[in-house]
Structures are given as C-alpha cells and as structure tokens.
Amino acid sequence: MNPGLRAVLDVLQAHDQLRVVDDEIDPRYISPLVARASRAVLFRRVRGYELPVVSGLLSDRRRLALCLGMEGAETAQRLRRAIDLPIPPVLVADSPVKEVVLTGDAVDLSMLPIPVMAERDGGPFIASAVAVAEHSELGRNAGIYRLMYRNRNTLGIDIVTPNNLRALYEEANARGEALPLSIAIGAAPIEMLAATFKAPAGADELAVAGGLRGEPLALVPGETIPVAGIANAEIILEAELLPGGHVHPEGQFGEFTRLMGGVHRNPLVRVRAITMRRDAIFYALQMPWENIYLGAPVYEAAAYRVLREAGVRVTAVNITPGGCCHWHVVAAIKAAPGDGKNALTALLSVADFKHAIVTDDDIDIFDPVEVEWAVATRVQADRDVVIISGARAKPLDPSLPQTGGPVVTAKMGIDATIPLGVPRERYTRITYPFLDRVGPDGSAPRSAATTSSPEAARAAVLDALAPGPRYYVELLAVLPYVEYRTLVRVIGELDEAGLVGRDDQGRLIRLAGAR
Predict the structure, then answer these.
(1) Residue 316 belongs to domain spanning
(2) Residues 202, 225: Cα–Cα separation, whole Å
C-alpha cells in the first residue's frame, strides 16, 4: 500500500511542524485556530463528531516539501519526469478505506466534521478531495474541486471553469445520464499534487502520481459505482454527478486569489456510499495558502517545459506567492542574444500566466528585492516590456470586466536581462574586501602590520606595482606588514609626485620614471 496521510503527519510531527490539540474543539473555531497557527494542526476531539480533523498541512513551502518528500526545484523536476514517464495505477482487492461501508439510508454527510472556513462561505466545503471520473475512450481523469455540503447525501460541485471533468459531465448530461465520481478525502499530498496538474484529455493524473512515487498508485473497486477509488485515502465518497446542468446556486467560497469568489450555478453530486477507515481523519484544507502552494510545482514544471522547448537555458523558475503561485512567473536564464524575448514568448504561452519576468542567472529570483533591482537597472520600457492583448484568461481574475462576452486578458512580459550593446562591466556588483577573514559575530583577525618606515613602504608599493596594475585592496592584501595609515599616506605621496596613477579600471599603476 502506498504511504498515505498518516505517514505525512508522522513526518510533520518529527520536524515539529504539527500541533496536536487534545482538548475538545467546537468546529466553529477550527478555521481561526488554523489561521493563527504556525504549524499544521490536528484536532483529535471535535465536538459532536467521532472523526478528528487535520488542517494547514500545505500552508507554506517548507511544509509542502515535507508532505511531498521533495523540495523546491526538485518537486518541479520530478513532476516533469512523472508527466513524461507516468506509471499506471493498479487495482487491489481491499484497503483500510473499506473498513467501514455505508450505503443507502446510512449515507449521511453530516457525520463528516466539515468546518466553515471563511466568513462568507456558502456553507461547509470539502476542499481537499481528489475526484476521479472515467470515460470509455478518454480513460481516467482526476482533479480537485470544491464540494459544498447541501444535505445528508448531496453536494454542490464547482465546475464552472472549462476543465476535463466539465467536458465529461457535459457529454453525460447531453445523454441525460449521471456521471459516476469517486471522491477521495485525505489522500496523500502526492496524489493531490498530481490531481492539480492540468493534464490534457486522455492523460491519467493518477498515473502521474505513480510517476512521482516511482511505483503504481493502488486503487480499490467501488461498492456502488464502476469507478475505482484511491486506496490510501481516509474516506471515499462514491457519488454521481447528476444530469440537469448548471442550475443550482453554489458558493460563495474563499478562493486561491485570496478573495471571496461569487455564487456560481453548478450541477449537484449525489452520494451513494461512504467508505472509510474505522479511525478516519478528515482533512479540512484551508484556503488560500494550502491551495496556492500546492499549485506552485505544477506551474514551475510548465515553465521549465516551455522554456526547454524554446531552446532557452533556464537555471531557475519562481512561481511567486504574490501572484498566488498562479499568475506570476520569474525565470533566470543563461541568455544568448534574443533569449530574453524568446523566453517571455514561451512563458506567456502558458494559459494561466499573466505576468512574466526574465532575468540573467546572476539574479536571485527568489529575492523580490533582487528581481526589482534587475527591472530597475536593466529595463527600458519601450524596448523590454511586451504586452499581449486578448489572451485566454482565468475567470477568477477580479480585474477583468464582467461583459458577458469571452473571458480574455492582457498579458505582460518584462525582459530584465542585460541589454545587448551594454557592457557587462556596468553590472559589476559591490563586493566587500576581506569578508572571508571576519566572523559573523564581529570578530576580526589581529593586525599583521609591523612598524615600517615611509621609505620602506614607498619601495614596497612600487615593487608591488612593477608586474602590473593592482586594485587598492590588492595592495592592502599583498602588503599586510605595512600599517594601513602609512600605506594610504605613501600612496598619496607617490600620486602627488607623479610616480603612480590609475588606469581606466581605477587600478593603481606604476608610472614611467618611478624607481
């Protein structure tokens, strides 16, 4: 059996990234407690419920890395490999998620401790579940969709945005048929990451999960539907997307944009069975940060892919949290002539990217001050800012006017690479001398200088300059036995006497006639 949520909780606890609350908690207070927590939180006793609740697993990059068992750029690289080399899932006969099976009148979604997470949410939402559907020709599809509790066996599901599940639903709805759906709550974050990947129709996100794991993902047969469920989940809802179309109000909901989303018209989900572990843990994903950080590796992988296909040598990609790990991308490249613009063109071809910045590889693109400095010192707006109008947009972008027509946006790219025709010497950074000789606590080595006569110091300076030009600091380094003040005074006297000068790089040189 693939490691699941419990193995992740063990890892978080081992790294002091999980707070365990043993006191009984009213579910009203789960959301604010998680919002104020610096760690993930496991509530062992939730008033009125038998199931514990965990939340905040993925709320920062460090916890995301611990939950996935991979970190930073490695996550995007492994996801790229998994997309290229997926491992199909396998069907197993049984798993702990089948320890309790509830069907018919025993199905009651109110038994699940689903907290209300945002003040204006339309109700309790399941936001962590991986929904799996199957198609006779296109195969399996998995994704994460918000599910609003309506009554004991009914949920609302948000599939307003065009996606593969919506396409499968529309096809079934046109036939007047329900679409079977297996909904896994408390699947491992690796499966959630794979389900976040927007695979083309016909690609299997659960095979991508297998590629990430390096082994097939185990699935278990459904009890009441012909769709297999994720075996390492805590809870599986066996359900059907009901025909009837997008007619039922669903929302509001706190979105990845860090803003409240509106009320949408959506279809209903009817739950036919609940299967779960005897001691199942309910995972209440808290918006927006758990969703924001989970999406970052998916977009990083997309950025690496398009840059590689454009023939650009990319050294780093940052999908920034300020852009909700969705709309903004910064890439560092080893730029050949024209690569800055080619890189921008490639990045802005990714549907969800709205703004892109490309820098040289000397910029730390994970430091916003560095990125802003690159824009300030390397960009001429009329030459280096690219704007594309009428590109496909994400409907959740609140800056878009609601015209009722096609949802399109303007995209912007900034080429912050060193411009052609500008000498790289202009971008020589300030560095500090003798930094390797002082300690972070302010300690410095004892002076090596000994008493030296001005005459001896003068001769030493001229000898040091005989082989060729030296920066001032180089003289300080090669003449450690001369007192600093004596050295400065002697160099000044030699300058005054016309025996030393400076070249076009500001280095000291020995002039003709100096002896």
Answers:
(1) 310-420
(2) 21
